Amino acid sequence: MLRRQTLQPAGETDIGWTTGLLALTYGASPIAEWAMSATGVRDTLATFYLGPIVEYALGRGEVDVVGDHTVAVWTPSAQPLPPEQMDRFGRIWGSRALERLPLLHDILAARRPPGHDYLALIAVSVSRRGRGIGSSLLAHHHARLDRRTRTAYLEAPPDSTRFYQRAGYTATGAPVQLPGPGPVLQPMARPPLPTTTSTTARVESSR
Predict the structure, then answer these.
(1) Can you tell me the distance from the alpha carbon of 39 to that of 44, in angstroms, rounded to the nearest whole number?
(2) Beta-carbon neighbour count of residue 93 at 10 Å?
(3) How is domain 2-206 classified at the architecture level of CATH?
(4) Domains of the chain: which residue ranges?
(5) 6 by DSSP, 3-state: which?
(6) What is the pLDDT along the chain (207 residues), one digit of tens a residue?
(7) pTM beyond 0.70
(8) What DSSP state is assigned to residue 14?
(9) Where are the beta strands (DSSP E) in 163-201?
(10) Over the chain, what HEC string results?
């Protein structure tokens, strides 16, 4: 049986499940492994790192959800981590995170353009992937940015660049190689397009 679900803004009651889904997506990623040795950090990642990002975006950016299985987190720009949060990371994950998380931000911030919306996080639960839900989620926010004449910006791992290219993004310069050697990330941007009449974005998914 099919049901129709409308893309909608997240609220405070969505923080728990969205950070849990994001932790499943990012907890074993090459970036997490490089920055803080991903083994065993998934639960604390949701509480102490991803949760504050989602909370910040709820107040200063936009968090869009579909049902309880898809989320995209946008901020006005990528923000540095406050010192008190870095101290907490050091106590939880050790000196590796304390050194590499600020380094990650500084390296990537040097490539970011002015006046953009930053796709900080995006996740679709495994059972819902391959149905175009993530693409619809991006298109929903892109329509906002077209009206605001703002650029969308992100850093994509190599296996995701084609997905973002289909959504209108192009590479902005050479890939970034994190030290170590660490993972490679490709900075990508989507410029605002001329606005057209749009309807509320909706997504069909299976129950």
Answers:
(1) 11
(2) 22
(3) 3-Layer(aba) Sandwich (3.40)
(4) 2-206
(5) strand
(6) 224 468 899 999 999 999 999 998 988 788 888 887 655 566 677 777 888 889 989 999 999 999 999 999 999 876 666 666 666 666 666 777 778 888 888 899 889 988 899 999 999 998 888 888 999 999 999 999 999 999 999 999 999 999 999 999 999 999 999 998 899 999 999 999 997 644 344 343 333
(7) yes
(8) G
(9) 170-171, 176-177, 184-190
(10) CEEEEECEECCHHHHHHHHHHHHHHHCCCHHHHHHHCCCCCHHHHHHHHHHHHHHHHHHHCEEEEECCCEEEEEECCCCCCCHHHHHHHHHHHCHHHHHHHHHHHHHHHCCCCCCEEEEEEEEECHHHCCCCHHHHHHHHHHHHHHHHCCEEEEEECHHHHHHHHHCCCEECCCCEECCCCCCEEEEEEECCCCCCCCCCCEEEEEC
Rounded distance between C-alpha atoms, residue 70 and residue 135, angstroms: 11
Give the helix/strand (H/E) hosting 154: strand 151-156
Tokens of 112: 């970011």
* Cα 161 from Cα 109, distance rounded (Å): 19
- What dihedral angle (degrees, nearest 10) is formed by the CA atoms of 65, 35, 108, 169? -40
Assigned token pair, 168: 């209108």
Which residue type is seen at 134? G
- Phi then psi dihedrals of residue 42, to 5 deg: -60, -45
